[in-house]
Q: What sequence folds into this?
């Protein structure tokens, strides 16, 4: 049993690779290092540097390493930037997924776990998002992830692909001090970089309909997320029936103010966040239930908010 992890040199993908290793499942990494880091790939793990758009390379990698399944994490993951770069986003996330699925079909690989996103829901009306919440993506990124889910479903009909899609919310923390989130757009690294450079972190709006006036979002620990990928992969290999998609959500969420307070406590750097105007389109609250994933994928919140901040801060500090 060997699985290919596309994007396995990235923040999330590297945690998935380690989660496979912890249970004795072989992994192979394919990554073009456009946002990943070669140093995130564990020593001894086969690493193929290249693009998922190179179908021949993907197919060769699958065959040469006797791959039995694919965790497809690679993609362009910046929802806001995708509005300015829609063609690039669709090229990487839709054409790239077509390339991976074509290579899988040609190599006879029949199992796929797809890295999807909460962005497929857009701005939901529900207090608690479920898998039945209407799908209404509002960015090219969210649209591309939904198309990715459709492609897997269509391949299931066409060639019997066994698959599931895991819809991520806000993935934070670190399960290994050597792996940190280097995204220039995510909240945790933005706050860390501000603190490390002596700047004051910013909160965008404090007049939302939430207990402390700041937006509430779903934050989940990357190691918990990676664990459920392993459970999903094993289930697919064992022939266990899985749902087409699962939300990996906390069920409760945390406010931006709570995040800032935890950041100050963990880092030991006292600060009073700067209050900036609201960003257009930011909803008051987006939180998802993880009940379906808890039933099928051993999903649970094993880490507190303090754990998430502490692990992420330690990993970021180790990169200096």
A:
């Amino acid at each position: 049993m060997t699985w290919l992890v596309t994007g396995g040199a990235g923040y999330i993908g590297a945690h998935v690779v380690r989660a496979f290793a912890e249970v004795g499942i072989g992994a192979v990494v394919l990554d073009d290092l456009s946002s990943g880091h070669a140093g995130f790939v564990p020593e001894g793990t086969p690493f193929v540097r290249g693009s998922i758009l190179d179908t021949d390379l993907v197919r060769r990698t699958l065959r040469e390493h006797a791959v039995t399944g694919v965790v497809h994490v690679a993609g362009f993951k910046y929802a806001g930037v995708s509005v300015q770069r829609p063609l690039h986003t669709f090229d990487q996330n839709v054409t790239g997924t077509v390339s991976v699925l074509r290579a899988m079909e040609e190599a006879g690989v029949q199992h796929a776990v797809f890295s999807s996103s909460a962005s497929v829901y857009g701005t939901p009306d529900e207090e608690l998002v479920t898998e039945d919440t209407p799908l209404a993506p509002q960015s090219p990124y969210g649209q591309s992830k939904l198309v990715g889910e459709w492609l897997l479903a269509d391949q299931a009909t066409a060639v019997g692909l066994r698959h599931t899609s895991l819809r991520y919310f806000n993935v934070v923390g670190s399960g290994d001090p050597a792996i940190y989130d280097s995204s220039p757009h995510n909240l945790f690294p933005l706050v860390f970089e501000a603190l490390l450079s002596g700047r004051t972190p910013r909160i965008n709006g404090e007049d939302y309909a939430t207990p402390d006036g700041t937006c509430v979002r779903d934050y989940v620990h990357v190691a918990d997320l990676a664990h459920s990928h392993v459970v999903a992969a094993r289930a697919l290999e064992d022939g266990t029936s899985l749902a087409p998609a699962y939300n990996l959500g906390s069920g409760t969420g945390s406010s931006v103010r709570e995040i800032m307070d935890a950041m100050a406590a963990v880092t030991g750097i006292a600060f009073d966040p700067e209050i900036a105007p609201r960003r257009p389109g930011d909803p008051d609250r987006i939180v998802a239930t993880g009940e379906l994933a808890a039933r099928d994928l051993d999903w649970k919140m094993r880490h507190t908010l303090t754990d998430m901040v502490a692990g992420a801060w330690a990993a970021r500090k180790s990169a200096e």
Observations:
- Residues 2-171+219-248 form a domain with the Rossmann fold fold (CATH 3.40.50.720).
- The CA atoms of residues 53 and 91 lie 8 Å apart.
- The two ends are 36 Å apart (CA to CA).
- The longest strand covers residues 111-117.
